[in-house]
Design a protein that fits this description.
single chain, six-stranded mixed β-sheet, globular, four-stranded parallel β-sheet, 24% strand, 8 helices, 225 residues
Length: 225
């Protein structure tokens, strides 16, 4: 186990937030695919981390979004961030960053946007979970660009592009694209998170903030005052 300070000095190439079922799978699959890279996994639950003691991974006991907030203000940056927690990690990081400069006011994603998105499901905070799939995807999906792994049929579109192209009243749509790093494991560059802050600052009105891969995504709506 290492401290937050030690981890931000000796930065892992891949930073995994969450030590549950999906975090453990991410460690195993990334190590199998890229055995040369350093991996760090972060979770505020010491018991969850202890269950991964057999894996070759640096462990940090800390709340994920706040650790990310410290991590991205310290050089060098990790190469990839892999969210493996049941929250919209990128949005929670934005919420922390914006609290330094103003007040972030969250409200439900408008119904007019929900109506044009594939298979939307409303979350408890008014966020939307969206997906081109109306079935349970295999957890080792290789995410080919041209067709669905499960059905073998051509894709209906690329979800991150669809979310980027949303035009609704005076909303600005900001999308973090999740890239396939190993079967069933997605992540994004820290630079993408930092660039998203600039887009939020340039927005003239409310913001739709999403993280999405080719098939699945989550979207929050908010304003900054």
């Amino acid at each position: 186990m290492v401290s937050v300070k030690q981890s931000t000095k000796g930065r892992a190439t891949f930073l995994i937030i969450g030590a549950g079922k999906f975090g453990a799978k991410a460690v195993e699959r990334l190590h199998r695919k890229r055995p040369e890279v350093r991996l760090t996994i972060v979770d505020q639950n010491m018991e969850a981390l202890s269950r991964l003691s057999h894996l070759q991974v640096e462990q940090v006991c800390h709340e994920g979004a706040s650790f990310l907030n410290v991590c991205l203000d310290t050089e060098p940056l990790p190469e990839w961030i892999i969210p493996a927690v049941p929250i919209h990690l990128a949005f929670e990081w934005v919420r922390l960053k914006m609290s330094e400069h103003g007040r972030l006011e969250v409200f439900p994603v408008p119904a007019g946007i929900e109506a044009v998105l594939p298979n939307p499901m409303r979350g408890t905070d008014g966020q939307l979970f969206v997906s081109y799939a109306d079935f349970v995807c295999p957890d080792n999906c290789t995410e080919p660009v041209d067709r669905c792994t499960f059905t073998g049929k051509p894709r209906k579109g690329l979800l991150y592009e669809k979310l980027e192209g949303i035009s609704y009243h005076d909303f600005t749509s900001v999308v973090i694209r999740s890239h396939q790093l190993a079967p069933g494991v997605g992540g994004y560059r820290p630079e993408a998170l930092k660039e998203s802050l600039g887009k939020i600052a340039e927005s003239k009105g409310p913001v739709l903030y999403s993280t999405a891969c080719l098939c699945h995504g989550v979207m929050h709506a908010f304003t900054i005052s």
